[in-house]
């Protein structure tokens, strides 16, 4: 992907203001885009099936409960948002009849009053009509104190939600919040008549047999093996074009690649083809294989509530003990780009002036010596009765990450630090173990931004830690009042050039505090069978299946 084709490279005021089009920008966002125009011109024929491979098992089917990227692969198949975001970063009407803007009267000039018009031809999978009541229910559910919500950011500012008619809803914002359009673009709407009827939304039957408005209907789940979805022939949008969509769970990445080679998998999804297979994969007959820059950042993450990690000298010393470049060259075949930030390097908001990582074992030793972490008789450093000993976890079956762990384990041992490898199956690893901060350290890849918006309140705000009763993904339990204040300030600014300074400063603080050690920005090897059409990368979403409705066989 060239710089010119990357939506992060040249953010327009349109993209950065979201839907607001405030002040001097004078720009409006398009409504329905030309997504898959060539496909749309053809008769809608539903035929065949597609098998998509995931190395992590989707387990969370209510899109509003704490979940990870792989779960959204299912969410995009079953549910819809009011509007979505395309690969160019433009908002696209979905359940909404049009994208609300200042120009069409959907949003007031100050960004506080919203009016959203909805389609009148949408039905839930059980045949019931979709209405504004479902939108109201969804937004209220996300801020319900009795519900285990994955995201309250932005939604907690909504006031006076009013259903004007079945096809129109209004609300006001307590204060302007620039990231809210991007948040809405990733907020799937759920059915009031089903989920709303459940006494406890956290344990609802819906959570294991979801009903949506999307292109595919829930059919079956065989835990540990696959999820089967069937075409929704009454879908209001483009597609679907295949009768059955199968998500296969293949935890061993070598096995997943083998199944792609043999044709058992039509599309390789998360976590794709590992770099060590790239040279062979690109020469496979009948396969389309490409390297795709991603917005995901790989990191070595700390649980900041563990006593050994409360000392910043420890975190800094461990960073100096990691030979990032050698890991990238030897294990990832030089494909990813080393980074110091959680922001993709192509982003308008990326800070290029952060201190560069330096691999230096002697400097690491001195940091620990000066901080009072002295080696014991067993060679492991300790201070005030706390040993520099911890576990490191990641997804079992990811053989490259397992090699990275072994590499780090030896480097840390030379430093007088004991790291024990304790990997888990994906369904366990990314469940409560991750979301409720039950780990010591983790190697993980995360998309920190919401689309192209730089807000990271869900990850860095002090009250976004599920382990402390918050809603969000601050699983390292990071707390910093300056970052909290900056996130609040950044959310109230709508002009990109003015917002930028705020997010440059947040990156500086995160680089200094190091609640996670940034390793590299992903460059992923994607693959699908030739003849599968419209598998299009989109850095503004967290999963490949964002447009699965339009996937089809040629």
Contiguous runs where pLDDT drops below 50 for at least 5 residues? 1-41
Number of helices: 17
Helical amount: 10-25%
| Rg (C-alpha, Å) | 23 Å
Shape: globular
Major sheet description: 11 strands, mixed
How much beta, percentage-wise?
15-25%
How far the N terminus sits from the C terminus, by CA atoms, comes to 24 Å
Q: Count of DSSP E strands? A: 21
In terms of structural class, how would the helical and strand content be classed?
alpha+beta
Oligomeric form: single chain
| pLDDT averaged residue by residue | 90
Structure notes:
- By secondary structure, the protein is α+β, with helices and mostly antiparallel strands.
- 25% of the residues lie in helices and 21% in strands.
- It has 17 helices and 21 strands.
- The strands form five sheets. Strands 1, 7, 8, 9, 10, 11, 12, 16, 17, 18 and 19 form an eleven-stranded mixed β-sheet that branches. A three-stranded antiparallel β-sheet has the order 4-6-5, with helices on one face.
- It is found in: Periplasm.
- InterPro entries: Peptide/Ni-bd, SBP_5, SBP_5_dom, TAT_signal.
């Amino acid at each position: 992907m060239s710089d010119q084709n990357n939506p992060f490279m040249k953010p327009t005021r349109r993209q950065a203001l979201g839907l607001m089009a405030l002040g001097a920008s004078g720009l409006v966002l398009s409504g329905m885009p030309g997504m898959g125009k060539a496909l749309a011109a053809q008769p809608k024929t539903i035929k065949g099936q597609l098998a998509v491979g995931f190395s992590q098992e989707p387990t969370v089917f209510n899109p509003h409960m704490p979940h990870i990227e792989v779960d959204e692969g299912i969410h995009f198949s079953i549910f819809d948002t009011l509007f979505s975001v395309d690969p160019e970063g433009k908002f696209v009407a979905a359940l909404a009849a049009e994208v609300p803007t200042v120009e069409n009267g959907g949003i007031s000039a100050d960004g506080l009053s919203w009016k959203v018009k909805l389609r009148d031809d949408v039905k839930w999978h059980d045949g019931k009509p979709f209405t504004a009541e479902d939108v109201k229910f969804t937004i209220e559910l996300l801020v319900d104190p009795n519900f285990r919500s994955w995201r309250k950011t932005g939604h907690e500012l909504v006031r006076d939600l009013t259903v004007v008619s079945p096809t129109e809803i209004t609300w006001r914002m307590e204060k302007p919040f620039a990231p809210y359009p991007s948040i809405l673009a990733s907020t799937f709407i759920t059915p009031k008549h089903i989920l709303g009827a459940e006494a406890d939304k956290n344990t609802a039957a819906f959570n294991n047999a979801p009903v949506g408005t999307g292109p595919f209907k829930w059919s079956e789940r065989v835990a540990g093996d696959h999820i089967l979805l069937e075409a929704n022939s009454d879908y209001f949008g483009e597609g679907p074009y295949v009768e059955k969509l199968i998500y296969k769970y293949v935890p061993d990445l070598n096995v997943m690649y083998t199944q792609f080679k043999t044709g058992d998998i039509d599309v390789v999804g998360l976590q794709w083809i590992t770099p060590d297979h790239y040279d062979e994969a690109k020469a496979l007959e009948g396969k389309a294989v490409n390297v795709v820059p991603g917005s995901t950042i790989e990191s070595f993450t700390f649980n900041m509530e563990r006593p050994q990690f409360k000392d910043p000298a420890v975190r800094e010393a461990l960073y100096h003990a990691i030979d990032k470049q050698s890991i990238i060259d030897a294990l990832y075949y030089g494909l990813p780009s080393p980074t110091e930030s959680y922001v993709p390097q192509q982003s308008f908001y990326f800070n290029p002036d952060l201190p560069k990582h330096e691999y230096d074992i002697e400097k690491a030793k001195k940091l620990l010596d000066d901080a009072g972490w002295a080696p014991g008789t067993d060679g492991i450093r300790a201070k005030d009765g706390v040993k520099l000993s911890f576990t490191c976890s990641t997804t079992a079956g990811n053989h490259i990450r397992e090699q990275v762990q072994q590499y780090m384990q030896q480097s840390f041992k030379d430093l007088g630090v004991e790291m024990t490898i304790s990997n888990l199956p994906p369904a366990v690893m990314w469940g409560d173990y991750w979301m409720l901060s039950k780990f010591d350290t983790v190697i993980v890849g995360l998309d920190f931004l919401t689309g192209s918006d730089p807000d990271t309140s869900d990850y860095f705000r002090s009250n976004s830690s599920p382990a402390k009763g918050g809603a969000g993904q601050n699983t390292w339990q990071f707390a910093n009042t300056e970052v909290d204040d900056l996130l609040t300030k950044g959310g109230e600014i709508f002009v990109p050039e003015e917002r930028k300074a705020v997010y440059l400063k947040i990156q500086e603080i995160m680089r200094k505090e190091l609640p996670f050690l940034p390793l590299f920005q992903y460059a992923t090897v994607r693959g699908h069978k030739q003849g599968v059409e419209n598998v299009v990368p989109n850095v503004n979403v967290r999963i490949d299946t964002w447009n699965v409705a339009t996937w089809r066989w040629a």
